[in-house]
Amino acid sequence: MVLKDALFNLKQHTDICRFQKKLVKWYQTHQRKLPWRENLDPYRIWISEVMLQQTQVKTVLPYFFNFIDRFPTLHDLAKSDLGTVLKMWEGLGYYARARNFHKAAVIITKDLNGTIPDNFYQFKKLPGVGDYIGAAVQSIAFGHPFAVVDGNVKRVLARVHCIKHPANKPSSHNYFKKYADRLLDKNDPGTFNQAMMELGALLCTHRNPQCNTCPVSEFCKAFLSDKVARYPRRIKAKKVPAYHIAAGIVRKNGKLLITRRKLEGLLGGLWEFPGGKLKKHENAPSACIREIREETGVTARIESHLTTIHHAYTHFKIQMDVFNCKYISGPIHLNGPIDFKWIRLKDIDKFAFPKANLKFIPMIEEVRDDHI
After folding, report:
1. Beta-carbon neighbour count of residue 231 at 10 Å?
2. Helix (H, G, I), strand (E, B) or coil at 1
3. Gap between the Cα atoms of 323 and 326, Å rounded
4. Which of 11, 30, 100, 170 could join 127 in a cystine, given CB atoms 3.0 to 4.6 angstroms apart?
5. What is the mean pLDDT of residues 274-302?
6. Are residues 115 and 29 both part of a single domain?
7. What global pTM score does this model have?
8. Both 140 and 182 in a single domain?
9. Is the Cα dihedral 100, 106, 108, 111 positive or negative?
10. 49 catalytic residue (yes or no)
11. Which of the residue ranges 109-118, 185-194, 263-272 would you say has the lowest mean pLDDT?
């Protein structure tokens, strides 16, 4: 791809070098003290980058510490079962990240002598490793010259060059990458990549960017032309669909019925209470009983309405009506879930649940068996 847009104040090699030096100098002074920056351990760097995908630093920090404490080495992660890994990830979302990270750890332990590849293309063959993770780990941990392009970096690039291509359009990615490659400091790519991401996170923010304190504002075409608010350009998001869900807490002899989702797909591998979407013209209680029967083969009776939960995922949102139910009859015959368990409420913390379930689980304690 040819860069047709002029690079404005970054046309010359000397200008690019000045940009690099000013940015890195700012970063060395103002960077946040984050635990994965304490050393160049590729395992810790990899964990942080996986967790930080579409997730804020303040959210990631406690998860990172807990994860490192539970799985201090790649070998510890590989020898743990997926259920334990998902439990440590519970509430962080985007669970495919955890599943793929666990798969990659197993592969490295079994096939690569327990050593994380320091070759970009070999590393990218591992589950869950795309261009972003590959570039971040390989540049920061091993010093290989691959430019990182995430949302923060795209925002910086869009303003510096007044890039008209929508930042959230997949086909624009290679265009942004060309600009990122052009600016990359190949002598210290890890530091430069982190500086670009930090600039986007701290100063070149989506709202209220702090242009007057930006170390590279003299190179920013949008700032110099008073057009910062126009960039990055984005395609207007489609309206998020909403679904009505019904779920049942089925009780039998003091135990609760939980089922496990398939390992692939949304929330794969997590446990949940049986339920699903309402059909057209169906009410929530009827849907609850139908879904329990279809998913587990069990006949149940609703005793009371526990609560209504509202939860938003990335591409849709749900309203979930949750019911206290009593087991009536039938052996378990799973249709959809891959496993089931009858558990006591005191053991519920041993299992990883979707965040929507976590919102009502504390309320279950308020319902005693003799009320069912």
Report:
1. 25
2. coil
3. 10
4. 100
5. 96
6. yes
7. 0.86
8. yes
9. negative
10. yes
11. 263-272
